[in-house]
Amino acid sequence: MITYRQISTNDHEYALEKELRDRVLRMPLGLHLSEQDVADEDRQFHLVAVNGQDQVIGCVLVAFSGTVAKVRQLAIEGAYRGRGVGAELMKRAEQAIRARNIGTVTLHGRVTARGFFEKLGYTAASEVFTEVTIPHIKMQKDLIRTSRKI
């Protein structure tokens, strides 16, 4: 059974979240999360997916700046990919964004994840660019128009 919970940087799951992000998102690129990468995370929205053994197997982070929301990172443990964990994390993150009366969410997605985000209603908003050594694309979603369809 997978549970989803919002956490803060003071919760014990935060260390597990950072370890997951480092292992899944940075180490395959020969990188590690830096102090700059985690700066200001105490002011961001953190949502984790936890399995029955209390392991953090997925997470999403959202940064807010005024009326702008940006999904910073989404990481899913390899064994849990393709099982709806990422989609559920994104759905719940979008609910939190809507709760702040923010109508548009953006993200810089890896080009390899473009199809995943398009299935969730995101559209390309830039040309491909390099970020953390690999190709990314800016994507966005209008949450106001999407919520009217629901």
Number of strands: 8
Q: Based on the structure, what is the oligomeric state of the protein chains?
A: single chain
Which spans of ≥5 residues are poorly predicted at pLDDT below 50?
Answer: none
N-to-C terminal Cα separation, in Å?
A: 27 Å
Looking at the structure, the CATH topology is Aminopeptidase
Task: Write a compact overview of the structure shown.
This protein has 150 residues and is α+β, with helices and mostly antiparallel strands.
What would your notes on this structure say?
- This protein is an alpha+beta fold and 150 residues long.
- The chain has a single domain (3-149), classed as Gcn5-related N-acetyltransferase (GNAT) (Aminopeptidase).
- The protein has five helices and eight strands, in the order E-H-H-E-E-E-H-E-H-E-E-E-H.
- It has helices spanning 13-26, 35-38, 85-99, 114-119, 143-149; strands at 3-7, 45-50, 56-65, 68-76, 104-110, 123-124, 129-131, 134-142.
- Strands 1, 2, 3, 4, 5, 6, 7 and 8 form an eight-stranded mixed β-sheet that branches.
- It is globular.
- It starts with a strand and ends with a helix.
- The model has no long low-confidence stretch (mean pLDDT 95).
